[in-house]
User: Fold this.
Amino acid sequence: MKTETPRDLFFDQLQDLFSVENQLKRSLPTLAGRAENGTLASLLTTHLGETERHLETVAHLLTLHGHQPGGDTCKAMEGLIAGGDAHLDGVEVATTRDLMIIAHCLRIEHYEVAAYDITSALAQQLGLMEEALVLKNILRQERRTRDDLSRLQPVLFEIATRIQLEP
Assistant:
C-alpha cells in the first residue's frame, strides 16, 4: 500500500501497531518466564493479556475499514526485542536480569506509547472519533504498564544492590 495521504498514514500506523502487538505477544511469555521477581512476572503476564486484546482491537479497526491485518513487520519492534534479548542472555544474576528485563520492557513501552499517541491523534484529525477513543484507551493502558515498570525498577535495584553487598 502506498502512503500518500494522512488517511493512508493512519492505516500504515495501524498495520505497524498490529505487527508491534503480534511480536510482543510472542516475546512476553519468555520474558515473564525469565523474571525472578514475582511482581515483575505478574506484571508481564498481565500485560500479555492486554497485548492479546490490543492485537484483536487493532485487527478489528483494520478490518472495519476494509484492510487486512498483517503483511507488514515492524522493524523497530523487531530490533527492540532482538536487542533486549541479546542483552538478557549475558546476565546470569537473577536480580540484575530482572532489572535488565525492566530496561528492555521500558524501551518497548516507550515505543508503543509513541505509536499509539500518533495513531490516535491521526484518527481524531481524520474525524474517526470512535477509533481515536479506542486507541486512546489502549494508550492509557500502555502508559500504565510503563509507569508500573518504572515504579518497580528502584525496588528491584535496591534488592539487587543489597544482595551484591551481602558477604
User: Anything to note?
Assistant: The longest helix spans residues 129-165. The CA atoms of residues 18 and 56 lie 9 Å apart. The mean pLDDT is 94. The helical segments are 6-34, 38-64, 75-88, 94-125, 129-165.
